[in-house]
Task: inverse folding
């Protein structure tokens, strides 16, 4: 029986890098007792530097009652790091063999009802949990860097993961102040990384072909689609940009462009079922807001983002 | 002989939609006299509504001296719309036959030294200018919606375009307060749309395969990579996320992931020349700023963006 997310007071963060350090800082800022495991105490200065940098922004956002950097235990003893823990966030190096060996140990050390979440950017949990003696509570909880600021956590299990562990993790992350996104399927790269990776590979193609420089890529994003994407994502950006017709107009107007070589990635067939899924999804997100209201909200926020990016 | 961008006082905006209306509002806000051509005066209410919406944000950003919505002439007479104009921004419907017929007329009506820029999202200027009697001054000047707020303008010519027209357009847009991005080659979709389109097609694949809903796509972007992309683009986002090692570490660490199915788009071969171009490009953008300073700046701005998106 897992405790309610509200009753969690002690968590473990594994890893000394920007992700492990970032998670430790985040949990400290939310008032948790944090036990940090480093592979070697030589990594302590780097780890503390990540926390000190993160703390400036976390303090600006607002700390939870009782939050303090003093609530941190740093150790290179894995047993000590997980003693009494109620949740483990693992951010070890992105190598399958390292993670598998770690989950073999954690699976024996950590009580079987405690959820262990991996920050992996794309390794499947089915592979990571292969040698874990208690895999049913192991999940992916994938953040975006910097994990103390960007709210997204993508959540998905492996073949041996129990649904109750995923349910609990969604509730726990949300309670801690994150935006959990539970995946429908275990797909390589999850959702956010796949979207970013498609864009990134197109960027690499353009640089490789002398069509754009890295600076061109970054300026194109910063001054073009990215501020809008930060506010609306991409589906609602198109939905609102098309005015009253919304996504239906977008797909009618730009549907033919899906066949054009506007990127090196071929589009899927725009079947009626895909069209309906896109249109229905956007209408649901819009709810009863009018297009004029959604456009006005977008504009108001773009003005703020432009100011934030140029101050 | 073209006048200096500073001497431009009268411009023409063609098109009644969100792009044509958005450009008209932008130029009005910068103090220009604007002559707007609508296909039919029936479109006037929609056109004026776009301008009224835009004006709220433009006033918030700050109007130029002398800027007024009264400096607007609306007409369905093309000759009247271009009489005395010093620059034409064309935002007609995205259909090649319509644009070609329009450029045939404009090419005869508008003095040959006046630059005519198309807002096309992806039609090549080489095709658009095919029937224009004076194609040397016709260019693409591609904005992102809403064009009165997002600063990017992608600039590229067609086969018959003169380099001097492109030089002038870069200077004019910059003077008017835009961020011109001059393309090295005429490629379908330009740079920003290609990046967005790769991401969009990957999103459509995921929805088509039941891997994600439109809401999942938008939440993944808004709470994950998009705020960072709005601040740093994608190259610098990876450069700074990797700490002291920068883009070189990114490519070493995630280079193998370019072979993984993290998106349906295959990556180019990571040759030494591509690697060097990415690393050198990021080092140039970083200049003498330290990684700690760049990370602190990123964090400070992410906090503002998160506040802007949740207020």
Result:
């Amino acid at each position: 029986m897992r405790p309610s997310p509200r009753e969690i007071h002690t968590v473990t963060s594994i890893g000394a890098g920007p992700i492990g350090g970032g998670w430790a800082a985040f949990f400290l800022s939310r008032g948790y007792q944090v036990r940090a495991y480093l592979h070697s105490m030589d990594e302590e200065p780097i780890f503390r530097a990540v926390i000190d940098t993160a703390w400036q922004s976390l303090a600006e956002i607002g700390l939870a009652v009782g939050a303090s950097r003093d609530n941190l235990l740093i150790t290179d003893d894995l047993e000590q790091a997980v003693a009494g823990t109620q949740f483990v966030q693992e951010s070890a190096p992105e190598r399958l063999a390292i993670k598998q060996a770690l989950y073999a140990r954690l699976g024996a050390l950590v009580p079987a009802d405690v959820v262990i979440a991996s920050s992996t950017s794309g390794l499947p949990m089915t592979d990571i949990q292969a040698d874990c003696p208690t895999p049913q509570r192991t999940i992916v909880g994938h953040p975006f860097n910097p994990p103390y600021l960007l709210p997204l956590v993508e959540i998905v299990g492996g073949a041996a993961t129990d649904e109750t562990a995923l349910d609990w993790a969604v509730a726990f992350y949300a309670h801690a102040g994150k935006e959990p996104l539970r995946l429908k399927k275990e797909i390589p790269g999850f959702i956010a990384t796949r979207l970013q990776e498609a864009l990134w590979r197109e960027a690499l193609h353009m640089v490789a072909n002398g069509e754009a420089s890295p600076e061109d890529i970054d300026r194109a994003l910063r001054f073009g689609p990215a501020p809008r994407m930060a506010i609306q994502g991409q589906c609602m950006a198109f939905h609102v940009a098309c005015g009253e017709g919304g996504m239906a107009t977008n797909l009618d107007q730009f549907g033919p462009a899906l066949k054009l070589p506007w990127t090196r990635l071929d589009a899927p067939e725009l079947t009626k079922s895909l069209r309906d899924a896109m249109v229905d999804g956007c209408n649901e997100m819009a709810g009863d807001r009018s297009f004029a209201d959604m456009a006005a909200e977008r504009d108001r926020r773009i003005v703020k983002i432009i100011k934030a990016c140029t101050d």
Summary: Chain B has a mean pLDDT of 96.
